[in-house]
Amino acid sequence: MLGRLYRWGALLWVSLFVAAAFAACGGSSSGIANPPDGGTHEGGPADGGPGDTGGDVVINFDSGNQSDAAHGFDVQPVALQTITVVAGQTTPTVTYKATVDGKPVSAAWTVDRGSIGTVPSALASSADLTPTGKVGGLVTVTAGYNGKTLDRQVLVKIVAQQNGADPNNPDEAPQIAGKLGDLTAGGGIGGVGGEGLGGKVSDAGILGAFKSPAGNGQAQNLHFLYPYDKTVFPRGMLAPLLMWDWSIGDADAVQIELSTTNGSFSWTGTFGRPAILQQTGGKFIRHPIPQDVWAMATDSAGGTTQGGAPNQLTAKLWVEQGGSAYGPISETWTVAPARLSGIIYYGSYGTNLAKNYSGAVGGDHMFGGALLSIHVGDTAPQLVAGASGNTAQCRVCHSVSADGSRLVVQDGGNYSQSSAYDLSPSGATEHTMANSATFPGIYPDGSMELSPGGLLLPLPNGASPTTPTGLASVSTNLGTPAFSPDGKKVVFNPMAGPGVTNPTQKLVVMDFDAATNTFSNPVEVVDNTGKPADNRPGWPAFFPDGKSIVFESQTKAGLDGNGGGDLRTRKGSKGEIAWTSANGNQVAVLNALNGLDASGNSYLPKLATPINMSCTGDSSQVGNIDPDHGDDVHLSYEPTVNPVASGGYAWVVFTSRRMYGNVADIPPFCSDPRGVDLVKNITPKKLWVSAVDLTGKNGTDPSHPAFYLPAQELLAGNMRAFWVLDPCRADGQSCQSGDQCCNGYCEPDQSSGSLTCTKNKPNNNCSKPQEKCTTAADCCDSTNACINGFCSIQGPA
């Protein structure tokens, strides 16, 4: 994910040029040996920015004759250098000089983080570290001469100020609302909703008010609604929408400040009311972070400071109204030193991309049931399965393979009929299956599915099913089975079968041998025997290492009750996300994910005045269930997990009916288009993502507050997301990380230097984070683990 180059690697220098450069000291053409530890000279701390290739000199010298190794090699200055750079600028620079016994010598110069700064590629006695002006942080400059290497460090501090949105900035233009329809089209403005970026503040009185606030906002009850304090964000996501509440209610302008712990990035932005509010007549109660600023901030944060503390990102907000400013209020977030890529496939009941049901309250009275996808970085979803027409074009109740190659859905016109889709960058190809199954477990490579009836069906046609060995003796009715990412285990809810007691209240894990189609070694990892019938586990999913399982723990059945064995998320059903070991019963609730702080108190916002509205779900009145969102901590359902661990975390995506700040705050169960106008109201039935520490121990809570998944359709109820790998890219295609590549490696092209997929191991014969591995020994960084076939940072930085 980090896209950074390891300094001793792929490109060869012309040997005569190297020989001439070293001849000044009477040396041979032997060049630079490996570092003293005998390993590769690794590319620095695990907080490099995306595409971190610029300026890195990648050298491969032979071992040669070291008889003339320099004894008085020195590089000045020695002390840490700190420079402050205005965003977008490339000055000031830092000059380093290489000497031997005080005399200049030609050295090879490299940097570990080309996204922060670059050095010239030519051998020289001096080199200027030139900042890129796009990313701040600690960059290591290494000089190599005749078998010796010396490291010097520069802390680059990026600073920026902004007054109003810049419509000419291609990153900010999509965040500026042009017409009313933009506010709810697709994922909303900037993929996160709201009214977008505000304009320039020219009033000297308002600017002066921010310099001398009238108070800190406590008397006005000024507080954030979203994001949540202590959230862990990955790199690569769209910028979040800041939402707040206070007793004054409206505002004329806001000031936002972002800063990192070590000072590597600081930005202050002042914004007036978004112009679109003149048309909506609404209040100024939310404002996004500009996308270009968010990218710089998150690429600069992450990792640790020089003292070892987390290099976090702090956001501060001041709000002004009537000539008086109040604040700041602040939150601190952790940024994972990795980018999340891939595609999220999810079900939508109410989508406008495929209308195949009638009876909607709002709009043209049509709505759809379909499968949609979000590619990370997009601002709106795409239609994958389903079409406009009648119920025969509805496609719902889906499962997706971990490699992103195949999904299986049910046909709305006949729910006993399934379709399999081949997924590729060019689109999805549908195959009608000879045999069908609802919510099957799909093998990680998409080659087959495990049906709830206990059969293995080859995909995509589902013909000639196989009866596996060892499964029927444990269960003949599997509730929502799921394979581990390596395909060696399966987890399910035993609904019926020989000796099955307390069906619906257990989860069982079994080993699976794909070569012999054999299941063995059943282990009950969750057992709710003795608890009320409402307390049921379901929707299980494995973590990337296959050693733990996340699942929904239902705490209260909805108005449908427990009939039929379904674990529903509608009509008052309540649940929370928990996890357990795949080897035994060590259940712990993921409280931070669900919305509780360390003291067990809810940190989720609730409405001071409930929104009382009449809405129905399947004709049942549900608008009166928690209209103030006072129990949002028990409204989390259907978790799945990104199969690739990134930045020291596993990433859990789940359905929730919690308030999304002040964008989606109608009663939590108002999500049926036939029972509420979802054109005028935004339902809170949406998708959220939480980071879980890879170093977390079963029986504890290693989760963190969640963030709203950008780009999902605002005017729809969204559920059951699968975050899977992109269809893999062939050798020669561009990439950001090895997990995007069919052959597992993402390396710089020798001619252009840009990152491309390749089947060849890096020249140093080790893998960077997110590149292919068989064991941890394959990883360049000895602290990395090999998780689901990719090198992964072990713990939070």
Please describe the topology of this protein.
Elements: H1 15-22, E1 73-76, E2 81-86, E3 94-100, E4 103-104, E5 108-111, E6 117-118, E7 126-131, E8 137-145, E9 148-163, H2 204-211, E10 223-226, E11 232-235, E12 241-245, E13 253-260, E14 265-272, H3 277-280, E15 286-288, H4 291-300, E16 313-321, E17 324-339, E18 343-351, E19 357-358, E20 366-375, E21 382-385, E22 395-400, E23 406-411, E24 414-424, E25 427-432, E26 441-442, E27 448-450, E28 456-458, E29 477-483, E30 489-496, E31 506-513, E32 518-527, E33 536-542, E34 548-556, E35 574-581, E36 588-589, H5 591-594, E37 616-617, E38 620-621, E39 636-641, E40 649-656, E41 686-693, E42 707-708, E43 717-724, E44 745-748, E45 755-758, E46 785-787, E47 790-792
Parallel strand pairs: 2-9, 9-14, 11-17
Antiparallel strand pairs: 1-3, 3-4, 3-7, 5-8, 6-7, 8-9, 10-12, 12-15, 13-14, 13-16, 16-17, 18-20, 18-43, 19-20, 20-21, 22-23, 23-24, 24-25, 26-27, 27-28, 29-30, 30-31, 31-32, 33-34, 34-35, 35-36, 37-38, 39-40, 40-41, 41-42, 44-45, 46-47
So what's the CATH class of the largest domain? Mainly Beta
Would you report the number of β strands?
47
For the termini, the CA-CA separation is 15 Å
CATH topology grouping of the largest domain: Neuraminidase
Rg over CA atoms: 28 Å
Mean pLDDT reading:
88
Q: Please tell me the CATH architecture of the largest domain by its name.
A: 6 Propeller
What count of structural domains?
4
Count of helical stretches: 5
Largest sheet: 9 strands, mixed
| Alpha-beta classification | mainly beta
